[in-house]
Amino acid sequence: MKSKQSGITLLGFIVVLIVAGFFAYMAMKLMPAYTEYAGVVKAMNQIATEGVEGKTLDQVRRDLLFKLGFQYVDDSTIHPSDITFGQGASGNELRVTYDKQIPFLYNIDFLIHFNKSVPVPGNVAPPQ
């Protein structure tokens, strides 16, 4: 009687390894962008707990950009024009909207759009 062997062949193992490596490489390229986004959310929540009463939009932007430096957010990621303040469903909201382009392979890039808003107590003073 012959016993039938079962399992994966060397060629099948190499194909599985290539597919797993591809997705691992993709995750390694995307993880820093999402870690940076977590820092943006944390800095925005700090601004929200402090409040913005009596501050101008420029002061709020400056404070947020200062806090982003402590969260290891790259200076070229968020520009002051990406930070806005407006009326939302639950009152005043601080909004940050930005795009992150990540090179992947040759001429293939990832373009990730981040959009976060947090409710903020107080009103922003008009520019002087």
In short:
The protein is of the alpha+beta class and 128 residues long.
Q: Can you describe what's shown?
A:
By secondary structure, the protein is α+β, with helices and mostly antiparallel strands. It has one domain (10-119). The chain is built from 2 helices and 3 strands, in the order ααβββ. It has a 3-stranded antiparallel sheet, with helices on one face. A hairpin with a 2-residue loop joins β1 and β2 (91-105). α1 (10-50) packs across α2. The longest helix has 41 residues, at 10-50.
Keywords, separated by commas or semicolons:
three-stranded antiparallel β-sheet; transmembrane; DUF4845 domain-containing protein; DUF4845; 2 helices; 128 residues; 43% helix; transmembrane helix
Q: How does the helix and strand content classify structurally?
A: alpha+beta
**What is the ordering of alpha helices and beta strands?**
HHEEE
Q: Enumerate the strands of the largest sheet in spatial order, edge to edge or round the barrel.
A: 1-2-3
The low-pLDDT segments are none
% residues in beta strands = 25-35%
Please state the oligomeric state of the protein chains shown.
single chain
